[in-house]
Design brief:
heterodimer, A: about 425 residues, alpha+beta, elongated, B: about 210 residues, alpha/beta, Arc Repressor Mutant, subunit A, 2 domains
């Protein structure tokens, strides 16, 4: 699904009305409306031409190449409709969402998508309607001379409310209202888009979950299990040696104890990776404060609206903790900043997490992760010396991509702003009810 | 010594009882859930208490809270807190009311029976026993600190000191004479800008305060 890029929306001056205005503002307002209507007329004219050409082409070549041209035609229609949406949004100040299925794949697939897309229907319906109301802007042509004369006397000389020129504004309003109604994506299109989005994030969540299970399996199998086997073997050897060689028993037992301790250490790391224990003990705020306290940076934690009693769903807490842990690890490793700030805010739709450092910025999507995704949790770190990496290794992969995946799996959004020279701000919103 | 044990896992509880009684200590009471802990501690007033952090019914940090509450009511009550994992902030909370008679160790350490009993006796005598992992975490995570100016040997000495060991143990662990231990400690205090302190508990407090409030 493609969404229209954000564009600045300029709020127009409210149409003239209310107290009697001077003549000049009335003219200026009418001028603005005229500009808008000229654009509307141009678009309408364009679509007249376009539809005519389209009909001719369709009739002429439907059997031969018509089908192949269809996706291209739909793309062109999307552009025209997109332009109209933007014009309308500039006038009304309200953006009209743009919802289309992406046209990709083979020609057959593209033709099918183009036909199936509810957005195509919306666009063609608007174009057909344009045939009917596209002439609206023409009305302003007689309104201008009449308005200048009538309102020039009525408003300019007699100081009464302008009557005729504001009608041009009304015309523009009418055109905008109709266009908005026609170009707004149908509920079905929005639903389709939502389904598409959910399908993607769900697939991502399942893949992440599977990868996570594989990692845990590998950690337990390669590390803990192997050590326990080796431990059991040494105890067996010690039993055999009891009679023959009492001297070696002590050595075997001490090796066995070492192995047991290593297995325990590994288990602890695996458990921490599955679900940080402190999250269970202390909740999100307590866990984040502990993270802040143990960070290499001076970290200020600000909490808004998170009561101690109410807790967010466990998955949301875990994701938020992961985001903070990961961001702070990255900040400590790469930013060069001495301080960072963590904000946890309860927002109407869920939980917002914001981590900011005043470092050198330039965090990219790949380089700042530390370990590769899927790297064994405990490799080369048997003693748990590397506190930052250990805390960061909560969940799927690491670095910004891992964070994005984890947040997207919960239908959340991740915004990273890290211009070269800093500051780096990572903001995550996790929707939830609590 | 009279010991009160608070541990919900039956296997570990029995293990601890076995370990302590075989070492000649008396187990005055065992508590299997959070609400039982405080009455047991207040009722028996043991020489030292061994507590698990996570206990039923909530399986959160009931044991730790009970330990803090007991120490509030009976100041100086020696507590040795055991945990499946170490968390620096828990150590900070325990030490917050003064490090005298406080221990915080990973459960794994119970396996090293001699060291565990040594730590228990240290705590009962009003000393400190901090898990090496906590101390490592305290020492590694800050940048640009005067700790960087310490030699590797001085770091080792500082680490053992923060764990609560005395000069004799430090010397034995690092296989150096007590005289050189004292010399290293003097250098550490000088480099960290701490006032020179005699051996003993005040020294541990100074070191921990330094590590925690950098």
């Amino acid at each position: 699904m493609r969404r229209s890029p954000d564009f600045p929306v300029r709020r127009p001056v409210p149409p003239a009305g209310g107290p009697p205005a001077g003549f000049v503002p009335v003219v200026r307002q009418a001028g603005r409306a005229t500009g808008r209507l000229v654009l509307a007329a141009a678009t309408a004219f364009g679509s007249y031409l376009f539809i005519t050409v389209l009909l001719l082409t369709a009739v002429g070549t439907v059997a031969v190449v018509g089908a192949f041209l269809l996706p291209e035609t739909v793309l062109l229609v999307r552009r025209i409709a997109g332009a109209k949406r933007r014009q309308t949004a500039v006038w009304t100040g309200r953006e009209i969402p743009e919802v289309y299925l992406p046209l990709t794949g083979t020609v057959r697939e593209r033709v099918r998508t183009a036909l199936r897309d509810p957005g195509t229907r919306t666009d063609f319906r608007w174009m057909a309607a344009c045939y009917l109301y596209g002439w609206l802007p023409v009305l302003m042509v007689p309104l201008w001379p009449a308005g200048l004369v009538v309102d020039g006397v009525w408003c300019g000389l007699l100081r009464r409310r302008a009557v005729v020129l504001p009608l041009i504004g009304r015309l523009a309003d009418l055109d905008a209202a109709w266009s908005t109604a026609l170009l707004r994506p149908s509920p079905k299109a929005r639903l389709t888009e939502r389904v598409e989005e959910l399908t993607q994030t769900r697939a991502g969540a399942i893949a992440a979950h599977a990868a996570e299970l594989r990692r845990i399996e590998r950690d337990l199998h390669d590390g803990t299990q192997a050590r326990l086997v080796s431990l059991s073997m040494r105890i067996g050897l010690a039993k055999r040696a009891c009679d023959r060689d009492p001297g070696s028993v002590r050595r075997l037992l001490s090796e066995a104890q070492d192995l047991a301790e290593e297995a325990l250490t590994e288990l602890r790391h695996v458990v921490r990776g599955v679900h940080p224990p402190i999250l269970t003990d202390r909740g999100l705020v307590g866990a984040v404060r502990a993270l802040a306290a143990s960070s290499a940076l001076e970290v200020a934690v600000r909490v808004d609206g998170l009561a101690d009693a109410a807790r967010a769903p466990a998955a949301v807490e875990a994701a938020a903790y992961f985001v903070v842990a990961e961001s702070l690890t990255n900040s400590a490793k790469h930013s060069g900043a001495p301080t960072a700030e963590v904000r946890l805010t309860r927002v109407p739709r869920g939980l917002r997490v914001r981590v900011r450092d005043e470092g050198r910025g330039g965090a990219d999507e790949r380089g700042t992760g530390g370990t590769e995704p899927g790297a064994p949790l405990v490799s080369g770190d048997p003693g748990g010396v590397c506190a930052g990496a250990r805390r960061g290794s909560v969940g799927v992969g690491t670095g910004l991509p891992g964070m994005r995946r984890r947040v997207a799996a919960l239908d959340g959004t991740t915004t990273v702003s890290s211009p070269v020279g800093g500051p780096t701000v990572i903001e995550v919103e996790l929707p939830c009810v609590w | 010594m009279r010991v009160v044990i608070a541990e919900d896992n039956a296997l570990l509880r029995e293990g601890l009882v076995l370990l302590l009684t075989s070492a000649g200590h008396e187990v005055a009471a065992v508590a299997g859930s959070g609400p039982e802990v405080l009455p047991a501690l207040l009722g028996h007033r043991p020489d030292v208490a061994v507590l698990d952090v996570r206990m039923p019914p909530g399986f959160r940090d009931e044991g730790l809270r009970a330990a803090l509450e007991a120490r509030r009511r009976l100041p100086g009550l020696p507590v040795l807190v055991l945990s499946q994992y170490v968390e620096e902030s828990y150590a900070a909370e325990l030490l917050g009311g003064g490090a005298s008679g406080v221990g915080y160790l990973l459960k794994d350490r119970v396996g090293r029976v001699d060291e565990f009993l040594d730590a228990l006796e240290r705590v009962a005598a009003g000393g400190t026993a901090l898990d090496p992992e906590v101390v490592t975490e305290l020492m590694t995570h800050r940048r640009d600190s005067p700790l960087d100016s310490l030699t590797p040997r001085e770091r080792e000495v500082l680490k053992l000191m923060a764990e609560g060991h005395d000069n004799t143990t430090i010397g034995r662990t690092l296989v150096i004479t007590e005289r050189s231990v004292s010399k290293h400690i003097g250098n550490v205090f000088l480099k960290l800008g701490l006032p020179p302190s005699d051996s003993g508990h005040r020294r541990v407090l100074a070191v921990l305060a330094y590590l925690r409030h950098r």
